[in-house]
Structures are given as structure tokens and as C-alpha cells.
Amino acid sequence: MMISVNEYGLDVFEEMMDDADALKVGIEELDNGTTIIDAGVEEEGGFEAGLFVSRICMADLADLTFSSFGLGNLVVPAIEVTTDHPILACMASQFAGWRIKLKKFFGMGSGPARALSLNPRELYEKIMYTDDADEAVLVLESSKIPDEEVASEIAKACRVEPEDLYIAVVPTASVAGTVQISARVVETGIHKLETLGFDITSIKHAHGIVPISPIVGDDVKCMGSTNDCIIYCGRVYYAVDYDDVEGLKGYVKKVPSMNSKDYGKPFYITFKNAGFDFFKVDGAMFAPAEITVNELKSGRTFASGAINPEVLLQSFGIEIL
């Protein structure tokens, strides 16, 4: 029996609704019946709300815990991600593979609902995953709450009724938003391996730790600092079952962000220099700083990359008094 990422995600969504006051989030039902959780648009949200949003993103198939990370002499909050279902949690669910654009609304869609809308289809074919749940659970990274028209389009794409659609909305420039972006550290490494041509279905277990960005400004500035957390200080560990051990070494070497020609300065500066056009930024940048891979059959372990706290301190704009 295949795990339904939407069923698992809905359990967390309902838990979040039950704890709405403690999590400082708002609940709204649109006229078409779609349920919205506001985790930082009009409501305050916070670290715990971000943790719940991250659990929804990963279909509750990962253990997520808060931790700390040393940047030189300073300590900043961090999140640790551990999963025995890395492909389901990260690629079938968490990966932000759905650009939702309708009239004046824009948001990046991630989480379980993607498995119903098949965004992107090739990925689901590659990992051989399907979900036939009757309810869809989506996380939208957006600074606006979607209206009925947007929700109806999303429901249609997921082949569910609007009243069976559940959306958690979290802006980039919010505390919950910074948490859920950092919680993508394991997924970022898997996605990088996939773009290199690695058979990601061989990844059996995964772990990562990454700092959480402070709020440094608007959504675009926070997009820079949150990406920098992964690019400059994201550390990932994968246990894989992969026959070609020599070939594996080549992949491990190519993963870290330091392989990018754009590496070495805060992402916001790189993005600004590219005229705020994502397609002009070297894709090799979107990767963790450091990777360790244990090949289970051979018992060999390879590591590559290094963290770079100096660039992250620069990105965060921390003023030492």
C-alpha cells in the first residue's frame, strides 16, 4: 500500500488548526469551501508555525527539530531534518515545483497537493509515485491570501472539489517562512543530485542541519538570506544503496554550492546583478554547502564541500555592538 502524502499532510493541517491560537495563525474558509491557514500574511505566525508548515510540506514523513548553529562567535537558530522517506518527503511532496500565477496572484506551491496536480510530471514518473487522495493539501509561499478564483484553479488542477482543498500560506519575509525554507536543506541536495543525473531513488535515508535566517527586509531580501542559509551553511547526509561507488564519488564532489561560478557573495547581490531574473543565476548555486554520503553496501563514505559562515554573517547583516 503506497503512502498518501495528502492524507499524511492533512493530519498535520488539522493539528495546526486545532492549535491555531498557540501557533499564532489564522483560519479562514473561502466562499467556495477552501480552508486557508494564514501563517504570516495578516497573522504573526512564528517558529512553531514554521515547523508545522514544514511538516505539511514533507507530508509528516520527517522528524523536524529546532537546534542552534554557530556562526563564528555567534549562535543563531537552526533546524534539523531527518527522514527515512527522503524521496517521498522531499521530492513527491516538499519540492517547490509549482508556480501558481493567476491575474495579480503569485505563489510558489509545494507540499502534498503537487502529487495530485503532477507538478512537474516528469519527476513523478521518475520516482514512480502517484497519490489518489480525495483531498489536497498545499503550502503556498506568498505574501497574499489566495481568493476563491485562485483556490478553484488549484482544486481543478488537483482534480478535487474546492471544499476538499486545504492551503497554508506563508510569506518569505515571515518567521514561519524562514523556518520552512531552511527545512528544505535535504530536498535541495537531492534536487541537485537529480539535476546532475544521479538516480535519486537510491537515496534511502537523509539528515540535514541548517541555520534559520533572521528577517532582513522584504520578501526579495529574505529570499536571498534564506537561500544563503542552505548555500553557505547547509549540511546534509545521505545513506544510499548505489552500485557504482566510483561514479558516486564524482556526484558527491559536484553537489556543493562552491562548484558554482556565482559562489562567494550573498545571493541577494547575485540576484540583483542578474536583474532579478532567476534564469540568469547559475543553477549550480542551489545546493547545500556540504554533503556526506554513506554507501550502504560497500560501507564507504564520501564527503565534499565546506560551510562558509562569513558570507552568511554578511547576508544576515548582523551588527556586532
Could you give a quick summary of the protein structure above?
The chain has helices spanning 5-18, 20-23, 47-57, 86-94, 114-117, 121-127, 148-158, 175-182, 185-195, 219-233, 245-254, 267-273, 309-316, and strands at residues 26-29, 35-38, 63-71, 74-83, 98-102, 105-110, 136-141, 165-170, 203-211, 235-240, 290-295, 300-305. By secondary structure, it is α+β, with helices and mostly antiparallel strands.
Can you walk through the features of this model?
By secondary structure, the protein is an alpha+beta fold. The chain is built from 13 helices and twelve strands. The chain has helices spanning 5-18, 20-23, 47-57, 86-94, 114-117, 121-127, 148-158, 175-182, 185-195, 219-233, 245-254, 267-273, 309-316, and strands at residues 26-29, 35-38, 63-71, 74-83, 98-102, 105-110, 136-141, 165-170, 203-211, 235-240, 290-295, 300-305. The strands form two sheets. It has a six-stranded mixed beta sheet with strand order 1-2-8-7-6-5, with helices on both faces. It has a six-stranded mixed beta sheet with strand order 3-4-9-10-11-12.
